[in-house]
Amino acid sequence: MPVADLLAAHADAWARATRAPFLDAVRDGSLPPAAFDTWLVQDAHFLGDLLRFQARLLARAPRSAQAVLADGCVALVGELDWFSRVAAERDLDLAAPQLPATIAYGDLLYRLDAADVATALTALWAVERAYLDAWSAARPGAGQYRPFVAHWTTPGFAGYVAALEAAADGSAVDGAAVDGAAPADAAVFLEVAEAEAAFWEMAR
Predict the structure, then answer these.
(1) Cβ-based neighbours of 102, under 8 Å, separated by 6 or more
(2) First-residue to last-residue Cα distance in the chain
(3) What is d(CA 143, CA 176) in angstroms, rounded to the nearest whole number?
C-alpha cells in the first residue's frame, strides 16, 4: 500500500507524534522559552544524526531516489547552519549533551542502516512528514515562536516531503516486485511515531 495509507491505519500513534502539548503551547504562546531552547538544542543534535543517516542512504538508494535524497542532504546542511545562527542569537550551547529521547532517536536511525532501502525511505518520509504535520498543527504560532513555525512549514518543505513519499512508494513497489517485500513498513512507521512523541515530551 502507499506509505500515506499508514497515516490513517495508525491514526492514534500519528496523533501522539504530531499533536503534542509542546506544540499546543507554541501555538498559544504558553511554552516557556527555556523549554523551547531545550528542544532547539536537541533538534540540532537530531539533525546531525539525520544528515549522516540520509547521506548513507543516498549511497545505496536506487537511482530514482537519489535526487530527492541529495537535495535533502543539502537542505539539512543549510538547516544546521541556520540552527547555528539561531543558537548564537539565543545564546544556546549546541554542544550540550544529548538527552535520552535524542539518543534513542539517533539509535533508530543508525539501526536503519541495516534495513532494506524501502524500509529506510519509509522511515525518512515518516520523520519529515511528522515534522511538517506537527509544525503545521502549531500554526501560526504565538509571539516569539511564529517565525519558527513559518520556517518549518514552507511550501518548499511540503514539496520535499511529497517527493520523499513518491520515492518511498516507488522503492517499495520495486522491492515487492523483486522479493515479495511488503509495500510499506508499518513497524518502522510506528517506531518513528513513538520516537517523535518522546521527542516532544522531552522538552517539557
Answers:
(1) 42, 45, 46, 199, 202
(2) 36
(3) 48
Which parts of the chain have pLDDT scores under 50? 175-181, 183-184
Cell 511538517, residue? 132
Which amino acid is present at 204?
R
Q: Report the alpha-carbon distance of residue 189 to residue 192 in Å, rounded.
A: 5
Question: What three-state secondary structure class fits 181?
Answer: coil
Fold classified for 5-202: Heme Oxygenase; Chain A (1.20.910)
Q: Are 105 and 192 within 8 A, CB to CB?
A: no
Q: Helix, strand, or coil here: 116?
A: coil
pLDDT tens readout for residues 48-96: 999 999 999 999 999 999 999 999 999 999 999 999 999 999 999 999 9
Cell numbers at residue 118, please? Answer: 524501502
A 10 A CB-CB count for 120 gives: 26
- At 19, list the grid cell: 499533536
